[in-house]
C-alpha cells in the first residue's frame, strides 16, 4: 500500500469500499460535517476511486447544510444539526445533488466543546440513502463514541461511515 498521511485502518477500509462498489457497479457520494472531508480523503486515497466516488460535500455550518444539501432550516431548528432527521436530509441532499447510487451522511460533535447533556462530545449520527429505495426505508442511527479526543471521534466516525458504504452493509 502506498504511503499515506491517513491511518492505515482508514485507507484499508476505503480500499474495500472502492473495490466492493466497483464490483457492485454503483457510485457513491458522502455528505460530511464533523468529519470535515475525512471520508472523502480516505476514498480519494485509493487509485481508481474515481470509478465509484462521485461527490463529497463538506457542509460544516448549518447554513451550508441548508444551502448546498437543501436540509430544511425547520429540521435543523426542531431536531438539531446532530440528529437523525438532519443526517437523513443530508444523505438525501447528497443523492439529489449527484448522480450517485448511494450516499452516506455524517454529523456529530467531535469536541472538545459543543456537547450537551443530551448530546455529549462523541455523539455522531449517520444516515445512508439509496437512489430508488422506498422513502420509508430510512437507514440512520446515532452512535456515542465517547470523548476520545477530536481526532479519535472523527476517525471512528469516518470508519463507521465507510462501513455503511459497503454494499449490503447493515444499518448502523
Written account of the structure:
This protein is 39% helix and 19% strand. Helix 1 runs parallel beside helix 6. The two termini are 28 Å apart. The mean pLDDT is 94. It is an alpha/beta fold and 172 residues long. The protein has a single domain (6-163), classed as CinA-like (Maf protein). The chain has a 5-stranded mixed β-sheet, with helices on both faces. The chain is globular, with a radius of gyration of 15 Å. It contains 6 helices and 5 strands; from the N terminus they run H-E-H-E-H-H-H-E-E-E-H.
Summarize the structure.
With 172 residues, this protein is of the alpha/beta class.
Task: Set out the fold topology.
Blueprint: H1 8-24, E1 28-32, H2 38-44, E2 53-58, H3 62-69, H4 73-79, H5 84-96, E3 102-108, E4 123-130, E5 139-144, H6 150-164
Parallel strand pairs: 1-2, 1-3
Antiparallel strand pairs: 3-4, 4-5
Helix pairs in contact: 1-6
* CATH architectural type: Alpha-Beta Complex
* Percent in strands: 15-25%
Arrangement of strands in the largest sheet? 2-1-3-4-5
Note the total helix count: 6
Low-confidence segments? none
Shape: globular
How many strand segments?
5
Amino acid at each position: 500500500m502506498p504511503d499515506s498521511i491517513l491511518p492505515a485502518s482508514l485507507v484499508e477500509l476505503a480500499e474495500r469500499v472502492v473495490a466492493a462498489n466497483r464490483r457492485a457497479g454503483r457510485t457513491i457520494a458522502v455528505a460530511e460535517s464533523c468529519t470535515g472531508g475525512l471520508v472523502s480523503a480516505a476514498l480519494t486515497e485509493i487509485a481508481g476511486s474515481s470509478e465509484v466516488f462521485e461527490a463529497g460535500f463538506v457542509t460544516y455550518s448549518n447554513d451550508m447544510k441548508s444551502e448546498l444539501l437543501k436540509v430544511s432550516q425547520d429540521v435543523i431548528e426542531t431536531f438539531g444539526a446532530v440528529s437523525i432527521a438532519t443526517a437523513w436530509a443530508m444523505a438525501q441532499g447528497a443523492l439529489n445533488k449527484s448522480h450517485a447510487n448511494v450516499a452516506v451522511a455524517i454529523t456529530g460533535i467531535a469536541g472538545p466543546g459543543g456537547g450537551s447533556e443530551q448530546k455529549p462530545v462523541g455523539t455522531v449520527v449517520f444516515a445512508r440513502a439509496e437512489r430508488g429505495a422506498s422513502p420509508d426505508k430510512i437507514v440512520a442511527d446515532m452512535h456515542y463514541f465517547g470523548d476520545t479526543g477530536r481526532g479519535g471521534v472523527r476517525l471512528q466516525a469516518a470508519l463507521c461511515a465507510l462501513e455503511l458504504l459497503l454494499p449490503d452493509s447493515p444499518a448502523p
